[in-house]
Amino acid sequence: MSTTANFGRILLSGIAAAACVAVFAVPATSAELLATVKSKGKLTVGTEARFPPFEFVENGQIVGYSADIMTEVMKTLPGVQLERLDLPWQGILPGLAADRFDYVVTSVTATKERYQTYHLSVPIADATMAVLKRKGDAEIAKPEDIAGKPAGSQAGSAQLQALETLAADLKAKATPVGRITTYTDFSEAYADLAAGRIRAVVNSLPNLLEAARQRPGIFEVVLPTFGPKTYFTWAGRNDPDSATLDALIDSELVKLNASGKLAELQTKWFGAPMQLPNTLPVPEK
Hints:
Elements: H1 3-25, H2 33-40, E1 42-47, E2 50-51, E3 55-58, E4 61-63, H3 65-73, E5 81-86, H4 92-97, E6 103-109, H5 112-117, E7 118-120, E8 125-126, E9 129-134, E10 150-154, H6 158-172, E11 179-183, H7 186-195, E12 200-204, H8 205-214, E13 219-226, E14 231-237, H9 243-259, H10 261-270
Parallel strand pairs: 1-5, 1-6, 10-11, 10-12
Antiparallel strand pairs: 2-3, 3-4, 6-14, 7-14, 8-14, 9-12, 9-13
């Protein structure tokens, strides 16, 4: 056999071997998530139980608006146990992306970036932004009045982004916000507001209404709201394996909205029902 022929034979053998390695190197397709959940008999969700009245701990149990909704959703999964992992907000979406749990059942503000990265559910509540002040603070009569005053919100949140956007708008008008402080959770921000260390907290309107209801002699909501119409959602992974679980939860939320059950729970937890669309509008920002 000539040297050229021998070289060709070796080359072909090498290509074939490489092809085999490539085939066996391809990772196995992961199991479809809803089928896996049913097979395991457990649905694991991430939540932040420090966001009343949506999710909070009472007598050692996670309760609230989202917890009540999830009780209804789980009726469609007989034999499946719900496991809730209580995590800081900053770890919720990264944990979902890293497959540490199956789904997020906590208040995820719909933003353009999240809409493009995750499967955001149909809306569960209005999340339009507002300002909370100490009761009787006459210098803050509208959101723009936080100009020149220290304000705060939760680190890594859409609410903080809204505050920063408002601050940038005010700065463009030569009246910037005095100082923006970030917090691990909103309870810390409310404590600083009550103590006078900051003058305002930016959060979604339902949460601020609850904070003012809980401490009516201390807090007051500043109206009107500001920024674009925004919604709270839940979130799943945006991949083929998660599609059936995402679709199941969306379908149940639409049914609960149509039946009036969501309005009933909104009245229970917020004092009044909300008008919600059955599909999530594409977020503006």
